[in-house]
Design brief:
The chain has 21 helices and eight strands. It is mostly helical and 513 residues long. A hairpin with a 2-residue loop joins strand 1 and strand 2. Helix 4 packs across helix 11 and helix 13 packs antiparallel against helix 14.
Length: 513
């Protein structure tokens, strides 16, 4: 039985169960009628209906989204109390309830998280999750005032907890806060990966290897240069993710249903974000156009795109690691990844690159999430996007997923990588990559002929060129016959990793007239 089914069974949500043990339930009503709600639940009838209507993914809303929603409710209660819209006892009880839930104290059996069972995928633009939070806070506030859960005459989920608000300004505001909260750890994870790659760049700056294009031998390079290139890509991702917070700071809280602020006092509209900014410690600001912020979700597509871009770079790095470590005897085998676990149920001694493979899968999921967000944002109509729940689920999930995958890649793979120096050096000597350095010296056609002859004769490029040197047929572009020192300098693979033509003396500067 899955977690969702367990939740339903434990709370007796089947109709036949509701008819039994009625003493364990309380009666609540909404515009559709009356229903029995488990007496020990902090949630109420609106949550009950959502649980029945949306048992689809088995996953509730992201914990950061729920935490952000509680902060939004607290900011609203503070603003409403300051304006005299909420009586002090009621406002105080709501604020205390927010603190209890946010800080995880005075929790019922199963913890506060169990009181938010509504599926992340739901109709209504997030109304069910908003109502779930309203009911939990209202019932906890009622207890704070000495009452019993369900006594909404004391504290009402809508009249008090949701005062001056709509799902349509509360939910997107909370989503922005949650996304900002998750961007920080994601950026830090990429900072850690960047540092680890740079450390390997320095450690491997003397390891010569073959550089490849289209998976074919190209020219020599240093293993440190390869790691350095990855570090640069990750550094760009780190900066992009860090700056993405700026895109999320403008919120539409106070705009209520469509951004006009209907049913919210004017002073509330101008002060509630100040309260929220103080509570979160984030640089939040009221949107210049709350109607725009209520109906348009392009900012989430933009941020999602930046996370996807980071995932793309991780896939590139993970694939490169797998190739460089392939074999190890029948593949490239230039680096050794730290062994994490036995790799096969049938092949003894096999060890697979499981961490890069995990990173790939996490990144593929992130790319899929980005597509869902793109489609959902485009599907908004007129004054509201009804598909914010799926945007929220996918945006927050992709951030959490990529953060953990990046941390694991750093700790369980990058930091433990070692080079096979002998293998790298051997492949350089066996490769035709060395001849490229002579193309500008002896001409492309002669260099190509030497490479072909080396392959046909089973010789290395160095051996082939020395045969031609001995025969006196190796001639520089200016007609100067090559000497052994010239050839040795031209074929110095380390020099090939630096700018300029290997083994060629710089041209003398002409004196000024």
């Amino acid at each position: 039985m899955n977690e969702r089914a367990n939740t339903q069974a434990n709370h007796g949500l089947h109709r036949e169960d509701l008819q039994e043990a009625s003493h364990a339930f309380r009666q609540e009503h909404d515009l559709l009628g009356e229903r029995a709600v488990p007496a020990d639940a902090y949630w109420g009838i609106h949550t009950l209906r959502a649980m029945e209507n949306f048992p689809v993914s088995g996953q509730p809303a992201h914990p950061e989204l729920l935490r952000a929603l509680v902060l939004v409710k607290k900011a609203a209660a503070q603003a409403n109390r300051a304006l005299g819209l909420l009586p002090d006892p009621v406002a105080g009880a709501i604020l205390d309830a927010c603190d209890d839930v946010f800080e995880g104290v005075h929790a019922p059996a199963g913890g506060w998280a169990a009181q938010f069972p509504v599926d992340a995928l739901q109709g209504g633009a997030g109304t069910s999750t908003n109502m779930n939070v309203n009911e939990v806070l209202a019932n906890r506030a009622i207890e704070r005032l000495g009452g019993t859960r369900g006594e909404y005459g004391r504290v009402h989920p809508l009249d008090h907890v949701n005062l001056s608000q709509s799902t349509n300004d509360v939910f997107p505001t909370a989503l922005r806060i949650a996304a900002i909260r998750l961007l920080g750890p994601l950026s830090e994870a990429f900072a850690g990966l960047q540092t680890a790659l740079q450390e390997k760049e320095n450690a491997f700056d003397d390891v010569l290897k073959v550089g490849r294009t289209q998976l074919q031998d190209a020219v020599p390079m240093l293993l440190g240069q390869e790691f350095g290139a990855w570090a640069q890509a990750v550094a760009r991702d780190r900066w992009r993710l860090y700056k993405a917070e700026e895109r999320l700071r403008q919120v539409n809280l106070g705009g209520t249903a469509i951004g006009t602020g209907l049913n919210a006092e004017r002073q509330y509209v101008f002060t509630v974000v100040e309260h929220l900014r103080d509570l979160t410690g984030l640089g939040l600001a009221r949107s210049d156009s709350m109607i725009d912020s209520t109906q348009n979700c392009d900012v989430f597509v933009e941020v999602s795109g930046l996370v996807k871009t980071a995932a793309v770079n991780l896939v590139k790095i993970a694939n490169d690691l797998r190739l460089l470590a392939s074999g190890p005897h029948a593949g490239l085998g230039e680096i050794r990844l730290p062994p994490m676990q036995a790799g096969s149920s049938i092949m003894p001694g096999k060890v697979n690159p499981v961490i890069p493979e995990m990173v790939n899968q996490a990144a593929f999921q992130v790319m899929g999430n980005d597509l869902v967000i793109t489609q959902a944002a485009a599907a908004g109509q007129l004054e509201l996007n009804a598909f914010l729940p799926v945007i929220a689920r996918n945006l927050l999930e992709m951030m959490s997923l990529l953060t953990q995958a990046t941390r694991l890649l750093t700790a369980r793979c990058i930091r433990g990588i070692e080079p096979d120096r002998e293998r790298c050096a051997s492949l350089v000597e066996q490769s035709s990559a060395l001849v490229t350095a002579l193309a500008t010296r002896i001409g492309h056609e002669a260099a190509s002929d030497a490479a072909s002859a080396a392959v046909a004769g089973g010789r290395t490029i160095r051996e082939e060129l020395r045969l031609r040197l001995a025969a006196g047929t190796l001639v520089d572009a200016d007609g100067t016959p090559f000497t052994e020192p010239m050839l040795t300098a031209a074929l110095d693979p380390i020099e090939m990793t630096r700018p300029g033509i290997p083994g060629k003396k710089p041209a003398k500067r002409r004196k000024s007239p």
